[in-house]
């Protein structure tokens, strides 16, 4: 019976080897690994990320101003960041030459009227023809139009604020000579902001004007309320996206150019 212990030993070694090989195979087989069940919290996070997009704040009222005439800047009362009210003076140009042109046009208008009056008197005395009187009337109209043109030119000698806001950027300095079309400054009203973002076109099934959503601003860390204001009437055929605009609730500290994340909750 000396073979019995040997057989038992061999059987034990085979059992240990088989068990170790099964454990190793199970470790390599991904289907044999235990599945991790997502918790409700991770599912909520996934849904939140699914309906979140990048967004940027823009000003509803923003205007770049440019020079309308070649002239030297006489007054420039504001600096970058300064506030102003609608109608406040922003820039005044030195328009002495244009003022002189207006005075010359007014003198020509006065002379034309005097000549017309004289020719009308002579016409009653049959001293001049009706043609001379008609020509004098035409000269009066031409002189009057010239005065109107010169007055219109003087309107370019000063720039006033078209709305209340702040100076976002200033491109010129006092006493600088500018040319027509040269940028002067950029005006912005930071109290009236809107949000712009690009969303998947599939969202059009439920995304409509008037839909409220939350807007998280990165620069300030604030979360503000917003409402979809308009949806662009065009879907990009390549990216299958559409642009939307939203009204942002007035919140202190928000500025144009800030960015963040818009989180939508589709209606059930």
Automatic annotation (TrEMBL):
Q: Which residues form the signal peptide?
A: 1-22
InterPro entries associated with the record: Beta-barrel_RND_2, MdtA-like_HH, RND_pump_MFP
On the tree of life, the source organism's domain of life is Bacteria
- Can you give the residue ranges of the Multidrug resistance protein MdtA-like alpha-helical hairpin domain? 96-152
The question of whether Magnesium is a record keyword is answered with no
Domain CusB-like beta-barrel span(s) in chain numbering: 199-265
Gene Ontology molecular function: efflux transmembrane transporter activity
One GO location term (cellular component):
efflux pump complex
List UniProt keywords, sorted A-Z.
Signal
* Family, per entry: Belongs to the membrane fusion protein (MFP) (TC 8.A.1) family.
PANTHER family documented for this protein: HLYD FAMILY OF SECRETION PROTEINS, MULTIDRUG RESISTANCE PROTEIN MDTA
Name listed for the protein in its UniProt record: RND family efflux transporter, MFP subunit
Q: Which organism is it from?
A: Paucidesulfovibrio gracilis DSM 16080
Its taxonomic placement starts with: Bacteria, Pseudomonadati, Thermodesulfobacteriota, Desulfovibrionia, Desulfovibrionales
